[in-house]
Amino acid sequence: MTFKQYMKRAWPLYVMILPGIIFVLLFRYYPMYGVVIAFQDFSPAKGFAASPWVGWENFEFFFSLPDFGRIFGNTLFIAIAKIVADQVGAVILALLLNEARLLLFRRAIQTLIYLPYFLSWIVLGGILLDILAPHGILNQAIGNFGAPPQLFLGSNDWFRGTIILSGFWKNVGFSTIIYLAALTAINPVLHEAAAIDGAGRFRRIRHITLPGILPTIVLLAALSLGDVLQAGFEQILTLYSPAVYRTGDIIDTYVYRRGLVAAQYSLAGAVGLFKSFIGFFLIVLSYYLADRFAGYRIL
Amino acid sequence: MIRDNNWFSRLFDGFNYVFLTAFAVLCLAPMVHIFAVSLSGRAPATAGFVSFFPIDFTLENYQEVMGSRTFSRSFLISVLRVLSGTSLNMSLIILTAYPLSKSPRVFRGRIIFIWFFVFAMLFDGGLIPTFLVVKNLGLLNTLGSLILPNAVPIFSVILMMNFFRDVPKELEESALIDGASHWQVLWYIYIPLSLAAIATLTLLAAVNHWNAWFDGLIYMSDTANYPMQTFLRTIVVELDLTNVGIDPRDLQRLSDRAIRGAQIIVATVPILVVYPFLQRYFISGIKLGAVKE
Lengths: 299, 293
Hints:
The complex is a heterodimer. Chain A is 73% helix and 0% strand. By secondary structure, chain A is mainly alpha-helical. Chain A is built from 14 helices and no strands. Chain A is globular, with a radius of gyration of 25 Å. Chain B is mostly helical. Chain B contains 15 helices and no strands. The two termini of chain B are 29 Å apart. At the A-B interface, helix 1, helix 4, helix 5, helix 6 and helix 8 of A face helix 1, helix 4, helix 5, helix 6 and helix 8 of B.
């Protein structure tokens, strides 16, 4: 087949993909070129091309700041705690839902626990700011037991815990979906055979149900590696305040404040590039592990 | 059907039903509380007497919110954004996924195109360069800044592509032999066979557009251009009721806390309206992507 014959049939395919390519070039690749600001003393007036180069200066400056250890530590701590809480919680909830035999009951519970996932952090944050306020309903409730009011969002003792727990609230129901799907894929014959052989309910959970969802657990564990720098930007930006920067400031909020609030583009760009770079390798590694150990491929 | 009727198993069942009910109630309780506050009068709402039922029931908070010019304006901007943004997303997802779902023999250079998109998904230029690009392109303070930067959600393209690849090839081959073009194959064969996947991704895109607020915050310098969620942020997070467009005299009568509650609820209602569809399509779609080998 000559090229001309090929194109006669195939040209629409190239026309179809063209708009997607243009958008990705403009809004994904052009910003990748824009990371040069990390190596410049960037000024918007001069632009990407004409701003003076400063080599690694921005990085050296950032690594010398006390902020560096703080925001990386906070990011890793919050992100990993969230992943663990979410996955463990999801497995347990899915197992319990699977054991609830009344289908209608199960549906009702699922309907209620999936809902927070679909609400924005502004809506959930607005709710949390109200109920966790010093005079909010939660402090009233613990006040009934004689406890003094706590600053759940305003004190460094509580902030991370509040973030992790409220992240759990939003996401855990939704995370059960994948496990529930894996649970329905387990052949019921296995359970019946085991029951005939005298295995009780908990033995069957231990020896049939859990091994049945093990591949899914492994897969999600591998994929979650790509999220260890994602502590929840929109959530923390909504809920934090200067009082809790010590325990709650993460890479993304720091980049936002330095870059877009204080207009220190080059410094923020350097921090962001540092994160993108590590994030890229984490995601590639997570996909590799997911393929290697769970046979998962996105393509 | 297996029956476990020993006492320990039944005890476990009882515990299980109680625990799951309690957990679900706990998940929902904060929203019910805010809903109750939003329906309460000034004194009980401000004093914090309201728990899960409204006290001094009133709809005035809602009337106040709906009557505010700024609020309805931001609501309209969000609706416009959802409609235009979702249509743009879906057109681009389908148009991009279709060629990528072909074999390299049918679509030469497929592997290069695939990696072009996958690399763009994996490596992120970052917040600051992306902001500067949007600024350079002159999109600040336009609707374009909200819908163009994420016009091609690459992960959705990949899901769509995987779905297209499962469409039986025989249909397409016979159509092509009969002289159909790829446009016709896409329109008359692929799209009708992929409606479930398209519905799923449409809902996903629409919910994402409705819920997005950060882009509005950074790309709009004029608060009059804020979409709903970004506008809501100034009220519920920054606690700034000055630009809400509510008559200060009304605040003498009403509780600002109850008004905030009413705004939160109004922003949630559209999600609740599509929620049954979300459950039906989106959740089955997730399973599809997750369980499929």
